[in-house]
Specification:
By secondary structure, the protein is α/β, with parallel strands linked by helices. It has helices at about 1-15, 30-35, 35-50, 60-70, 80-90, 120-130, 145-155, 175-185, 190-195, 235-245, 245-255; strands at about 25-30, 50-55, 75, 90-110, 135, 165-170, 190, 205-210, 215-225, 255, 260, 265. The protein is built from eleven helices and twelve strands.
């Protein structure tokens, strides 16, 4: 009788739909990791389902490559056109909006390119180019790097011709690039969440933000199990449904750092 009661208690205390030791791999951007978002929301998901989520935090370009290779179950990234191509090529099942924030252009407080008060990001980039002021690019095919290069193209500036002069490619993540920009007295573009979480702001500030072209959308995709049979389709779908559902969206909205909301849910 005692064994029966104990078994019943264990069953009741086990999270719904959970299996001991179950887990998924999420290939995600560095911003979602560095901002502390995952540290906040993943324990909530595990308490509900019992599933561990193991995050591989890389640039979006690398996350998409890893997904193509089957090195993960779910992607959470922020380069919509590349995500849609990933799905169109058959590597992802479906792309869904999850949340958004924005990009900001930050730089040294002495502002050698005189950007302060500039609300047009293309004008700001032209001023940096015209003055030859240092600019630190991630140069790593991340979602942020993709956005930055798109903005340079829209501004009519070929930064490839300036590589190694005023335009410096770090080949690093966002946190490292911000540190390098701070050390060099350079401008850079960062997602706002990483900027809020960044600890080494001395001598740097936001100099251009609010332009609609700086909108930063995040999407989530299940890696196609028909391409890679080892993909944990059921568990991955459960995570996607939770994150895009009321509980996950509420968790995203409630995450704040220094009193500031970092991400804004917009799943449909």
């Amino acid at each position: 009788m005692a064994n029966i009661i104990l078994a019943a208690l264990i069953f009741c205390l086990t999270p719904s739909n959970s299996v001991a030791g179950q887990s998924i791999i999420v290939q995600s951007t560095t911003s979602t990791q560095n901002s502390g978002l995952f540290d906040y929301i993943l324990p909530l998901f595990k308490s509900r389902t019992g599933t561990d989520v193991n995050v591989v935090a890389v640039g979006t370009g690398q996350a998409l490559k890893n997904g193509r290779n089957g090195d993960g179950d779910v992607l959470l990234v922020h380069a919509k056109s590349a995500e849609e191509k990933f799905v169109a090529d058959g590597y992802g099942v479906k792309r869904l909006d999850v949340m958004y924030n924005d990009f900001v252009l930050v730089g040294p407080s002495d502002d050698p390119a005189s950007l302060s008060g500039t609300s047009d990001i293309l004008d700001a980039l032209k001023k940096i180019s015209d003055t030859g002021s240092l600019f630190a690019s991630r140069g790593d095919d991340s979602g942020t790097n993709k956005k930055e290069l798109q903005l340079w193209r829209q501004a009519g500036i070929n930064v490839g011709n300036q590589s190694g002069s005023w335009y410096r490619e770090t080949g690093s993540g966002m946190g490292a690039t911000l540190n390098l920009a701070s050390g060099m007295g350079a401008y850079t573009i960062t997602d706002r969440a990483t900027w809020i979480a960044f600890q080494n702001k001395d001598g740097m500030k936001i100099l251009c933000h609010g332009d609609p072209r700086l909108f930063n959308q995040y999407g989530i995709i299940l890696v196609n199990p028909q391409k890679h049979s080892h993909v944990r389709e059921k568990l991955g779908t459960e995570f996607i449904n939770w994150l895009t559902g009321p509980k996950g969206q509420s968790a995203i909205a409630s995450y704040k750092l220094n009193g500031k909301q970092l991400f804004f849910p917009n799943a449909k």
